[in-house]
Design a protein that fits this description.
mainly alpha; ABC transporter involved in vitamin B12 uptake, BtuC; two-stranded antiparallel sheet; 2 strands
Length: 319
């Protein structure tokens, strides 16, 4: 854990360096409005990164998070919007939009847990299949269109300002702080690392591995749904493609932040600095006039570079 924390802190100088480069590229970079905009955009995806980091530390992988990010608020919109408005059913009052969104995330997590933990199916294949199924469901209920005219209850968290900052930024900071404490200083957190490092040894040590994995997968679905709700509120809509492709950014951020794809390594703080660094880099490239397609290529390159650095620093470079 001490080595992991040192690696987390190694990204701080990189973030400072990016800030300096960003100012040299375009002085607007350090403008408060630009920085708040970057923080708000990354706060939405950061909840996916938080969810994925928890799952990865436990030695699993959840590819379905990006689809949960879109489907959960999509289901809520479908159920509360009046008939005739982008195929809404209007069977629930608008006040239930947020609970329905979060409940959808929990249900998806439960299904993943049922297939992965209860039936012992391969997590990668299960969540890949769920990604496709959930994406298809969102396209089906929306008829491939965008839900709009959403109730105020769905827009609040994405639009509200608390103490001078968007509510989504505060929520992201609060949740990351909470899980930094949980993962680093509680029995549940120690169980995550133990299971990710060696599930059989953890089970032999008396850790209820199945219960912990169920909890992590449900939490991941819940966090993904909340992240989707924040984006929905900011954009005042739910697109049929909401969240599509986000999983690549999520993995890039987690790997940059030092979270191992093999489980049992990395910290939540590292995951946070990873997504922050990635969004700052993207903002600098955007201000510098770099085409969006090159930004996507950069994300892939960053993953490869981070993997190579992780292998070298882990002392296994010569294996």
């Amino acid at each position: 854990m001490k080595l992991a924390r040192l690696r987390d802190l190694a990204l701080i100088p990189a973030i400072i360096a990016i800030a300096v480069v960003g100012y040299l590229v375009n002085p607007v970079f350090l403008n408060s409005e630009n920085l708040i905009n970057v923080l708000q955009q990354q706060s939405e995806i950061s909840l996916l990164v938080l969810a994925q980091a928890l799952v990865l530390i436990a030695g699993r992988m959840d590819l379905s998070l990006e689809s949960t990010f879109g489907l959960a608020p999509g289901v809520a919109a479908w159920l509360v919007l009046a008939p005739g408005i982008t195929h809404g059913l209007g069977i629930l009052p608008p006040g239930l939009a947020i609970p329905v969104t979060l409940a959808a995330g929990v249900v998806i997590g439960l299904i993943n847990g049922l297939l992965i933990v209860r039936f012992q199916l391969n997590g990668f294949i299960v969540t890949l299949g769920m990604l496709i199924v959930l994406r298809g469901l969102l396209t089906g209920i929306s008829d491939g269109k965008t839900f709009f005219n959403l109730p105020e209850s769905m827009l609040y968290l994405g639009n509200a300002v608390w103490i001078g900052l968007p509510a989504s930024i505060w929520l992201s900071l609060i949740l990351f702080t909470a899980f930094i404490v949980i993962a680093g200083y509680t029995r549940f957190g120690r169980s995550l690392y133990a299971i990710g490092g060696n599930a059989d040894a953890a089970r032999a040590a008396g850790i209820r591995t199945d219960r912990v994995l169920w909890t992590v997968l449900i939490l991941a679905g819940l966090l993904a749904a909340l992240g989707g709700l924040l984006l929905t509120g900011r954009l005042a809509s739910v697109a049929a493609a909401q969240g599509q492709g986000a999983i690549f950014t999520v993995f890039a951020a987690a790997v940059i932040g030092g979270v191992s794809l093999n489980g049992g390594k990395g910290t939540i703080f590292g995951a946070f600095t990873g997504i922050l660094l990635l969004y700052l880099v993207q903002n600098v490239l955007t201000l510098g006039g770099v085409p969006a397609q090159w930004i996507g290529a950069l994300n892939g390159a960053i993953i490869l570079i981070a993997l190579m650095l992780a292998r070298v620093t882990s002392g296994r470079a010569q294996e």
